[in-house]
Here is the input.
Amino acid sequence: MAKILMKGNEAIGEGAVRAGCRYFFGYPITPQSELPHYLAKRLPEVNGVYLQSESETSAINMVYGAAGAGARVMTSSSGPGISLMQEGISYLAGAELPCVIVNMIRGGPGLGNIAPAQSDYFQAVKGGGHGDYRVICFAPASVQEIIDFMRDAFELADKYFNPVMLLADGILGQMMEPVELGEEEDVQIPERPWAANGMRGRGKKNIINSLYIVPEDMEVHNQKLARKYAQITENEQRWEEYRVDDAETVLVAFGTSARISKAVVDKARDEGLRVGLIRPILVWPFPVKAIEKVIPHTKQFLTVEMNMGQMVEDVRLAVAGRRPVYFTGRAGGMLPVASDVLQEVKKIMSGGAE
Amino acid sequence: MKKVFTRPKSLKDIPMHYCPGCTHGIIHRLVAEVIDELDIIDRAIGVAPVGCSVFTYQYFDFDMYQGSHGRAPAVATGIKRVVPDGVVFTYQGDGDLAAIGTAEIVHAAARGEKITVVFVNNAIYAMTGGQMAPTTLMGQKTTTTPFGREADANGYPVRMSEMLSTLDGAAYISRVSVHDPKHINKAKKSMKKAFEVQMAGEGFTMVEVLSACPTNWGLSPKEAVKWVESDMIPYYPLGEFKVPSEV
Here is the structure.
């Protein structure tokens, strides 16, 4: 089938529609605007609903209502808006509702700027909102992956009754790449006997709720969630390995910084340096299995991030002190430059890093 | 013998947690009676707020949600857009609706969301210990206005029904009271009308109910219902503020 050119933001929209998503609630923010623009046109074509809310706070609560009623539903925003959604995401996790949330990360903190960044990693993978919960988190690195992962995202949300986040940045959102859309497949959305959409003869009420006023009950719920998160951690780690088989130095990077890191690996190999890359495809659960696999032949790790050092903490947890783990990155909308990262690689490989 | 009074089918037979003399129980009953009479228990979907009525989801015997503080109208919007033939309502207090959830209620009304809002106004934050609410009256003593509400420090109480009735999306807006049997009967009629207007697809509907909180007002139940009549109604006049032309 012929490839077509598509922007990342539009690919999210088309990927969602092809995954059977029919409801979008969101509030305008840069740099994800092409996504709502796309869905505002596309969803009515498939009898879906596009609704512009009065705030991100409202948008995520509309998602809560729609997900509870059994819909395949999504929202999208960027840093400041995702911050406003955190209470709602915590409710969705507590009530165990499936949905997909897109964060086109921009520079922060505060209003920051609208340039691409990876500074919301902590917020995405460590909770973000209140309480003891986790969100499954995809980190695509190309427009094709965005198309492919949207379906996986909705399916994982359904499989685990959990919110799923798609973390990307303004580059992936704005960039046009050739993509293969493939045939539109028939999407089977699992039955939702738990949905609160009117009893309709079922003879028993359904409740969508995250309140457990009795501490004993709350603890049981927390333990149940923890078992689910452990199951996700065991089953769903996903990553790409690039030239790691004999690597002495392994770069770890996701999304846009992984693309830059691939170029670094190739340049290093051209110069005879044994360098490879682990690219987490899901950043939660973090692919500790990937780290474990390369540890025997790896002398050191270097994370390459578009922030001041966030994922490096998860790499250090996975490495658990067995090897040194270094960090290099640019922030505020600036991108790591392949030649600079290569210099960093050479420095640590010659024992010169601090 | 003919049975003349019974528990509505839509209300569960479990103890409620409300304080003695609180009128939430009466308002719950009115909602349940209306849902029974309209025969919509199988498509009724309610959203409980945060505050005293947070456990509303346990008391009604049909599909229910518990929503975050102030966001019930947004939750109800999500539900109604997915289930257009559902009869969707929120049950919210004054702190929930008129302070933290002001944006959500205004925009649900502006969009003309086909939902019904049961707005229980007792002029105080009761669940958290009797703090000043957006609807607390001038001079009213609360735990955070120990010397009485003053304009300079605290501003003025908000009349939500009057405000929302200026919006084109609002189809039916009324204010009722449950301080005596006559007014309870009127309140029920108004509530039924609100649900009927929703079901006719006319737009956003809301019934504001003046409610007594003896515990946090520091009054006996009897004094509390009197205070609704003597102090609340003069500031919050009863009546219909918006009615669809054909109803």
In short: The mean pLDDT of chain A is 96.
